[in-house]
Specification:
Blueprint lengths: L1 H6 L8 E5 L3 E2 L7 H16 L4 E4 L8 E10 L2 E10 L4 E11 L3 H9 L1
Parallel strand pairs: 1-3, 1-4, 2-4
Antiparallel strand pairs: 4-5, 5-6
Helix pairs in contact: 2-3
């Protein structure tokens, strides 16, 4: 996700502002709802480390870019999808998908940010 931001042309001077929304849980089990909030933390933390990027709380809504996604669990398997949208044009500029074992959720989160 950070690579997409760094390669993007800037329409305004100054830092790029990004908001990261909680990832939606697409599982039927409401016990999985916490996963989406937790998964969203990884790109948020990764983006905070990038020079020239300012992270905005999702409630503020005033940002150049938005990261959002979803998590789905089927048995022991998890799929996490993410997208980064340039808000001025409402254009998806990058996507990612990782699949794996639910027991490896932290590894999957790391792969999402890579």
């Amino acid at each position: 996700m950070a690579i997409v931001l760094l390669a993007a042309p800037q329409s305004t001077p100054g830092p790029l502002t990004v908001t990261v929304l909680p990832f939606e849980s697409l599982s039927s089990d409401t016990a999985d709802d916490w996963v989406g909030r937790g998964v969203a933390e990884t790109p948020a933390v990764d983006l905070e480390q990038v020079d020239g990027v300012v992270l905005r709380p999702s409630e503020v809504g005033d940002a150049d870019w938005r990261v959002s996604g979803a998590c789905r669990r089927l048995g022991d398997q998890v799929r996490i999808t993410a997208r980064i949208v340039e808000l001025a044009s409402n254009t998806v500029r990058g996507t990612a998908r990782v699949d794996g074992d639910a027991a490896d959720t932290f590894t999957l989160q790391d792969r999402l940010g890579a």
